What we know:
Elements: H1 3-30, E1 32-38, H2 45-52, E2 61-67, H3 71-80, E3 85-89, H4 91-98, E4 103-108, E5 110-111, E6 115-118, H5 120-123, H6 132-143, E7 147-151, H7 157-169, E8 177-181, H8 184-192, E9 198-201, H9 205-212, E10 217-220, H10 222-225, E11 232-237, H11 238-241, H12 245-264, H13 266-278, H14 284-291, E12 297-298, H15 306-319, H16 335-339
Parallel strand pairs: 1-2, 1-3, 7-8, 7-9
Antiparallel strand pairs: 3-11, 4-11, 5-12, 6-9, 6-10
Amino acid sequence: xxxxxxxxxxxxxxxxxxxxxxxxxxxxxxxxxxxxxxxxxxxxxxxxxxxxxxxxxxxxxxxxxxxxxxxxxxxxxxxxxxxxxxxxxxxxxxxxxxxxxxxxxxxxxxxxxxxxxxxxxxxxxxxxxxxxxxxxxxxxxxxxxxxxxxxxxxxxxxxxxxxxxxxxxxxxxxxxxxxxxxxxxxxxxxxxxxxxxxxxxxxxxxxxxxxxxxxxxxxxxxxxxxxxxxxxxxxxxxxxxxxxxxxxxxxxxxxxxxxxxxxxxxxxxxxxxxxxxxxxxxxxxxxxxxxxxxxxxxxxxxxxxxxxxxxxxxxxxxxxxxxxxxxxxxxxxxxxxxxxxxx
Length: 343
């Protein structure tokens, strides 16, 4: 073959290769890394399902997860720029805004997650015709000590809802109970080890502990603890939101699709949640049961939790976990759910 033809053939092949490679290179450059902080509860399931189904990957989003024990623990990471997305309870975000942290709630994921359970020693006093306040009083009279109730740190949704139930709903005597703050895993273990008499738990902990000890009783569901109890939300740092509205829209769209899938096909959704929560420890049937639990109400529209979140913030001020109320309307960015396609 003449030299000039060989040269032309090589040039053509090089050009063809560059044409093939350019879209891939452009795609790689366009991919957006997203650092997500999450607490290991069923309320975060829509995020796990959307990731597992590839809804985020097809939108050029690469999510990397970091697990935290509670929302308040995650606030520092949000403030320092260590995470872009916060997936946890809404209550700590009021505290975050009061400290000048730029963050926006773009979606809810679940409501009514926190429930109150009693171990057998305490549960026996919750008899027919006995008010919850009287049950706690009877326990203290019988044991000579207040009932120890495990929950997450002050400022968290579990802690706030527990205190609201105790002091505002059932009017318990503060001498009859002792609130013990600890992490999610520690709470579950404390209940199973009979180290506490009661606790606020979420799924999958509720299903796990009741299967291991059927004597553990569900005493109060989510809305009984706090009316319209707001739960897990997806919040975006101001730094990430700036210039990445399309990415945030893709996240919200993915959550809407994921919630629809959970409702239609729990069997398909379960493996994705097992991958993130089970870690080879929690059986798939427990996760499947947790996804259908009364403590797992999946709600993506953040507009539905604005008023309950305001009421919760007011109560946090009363408790002293929040110095003063801040305007919460500015915390919620409703544009993305308004643009999201209907499921």
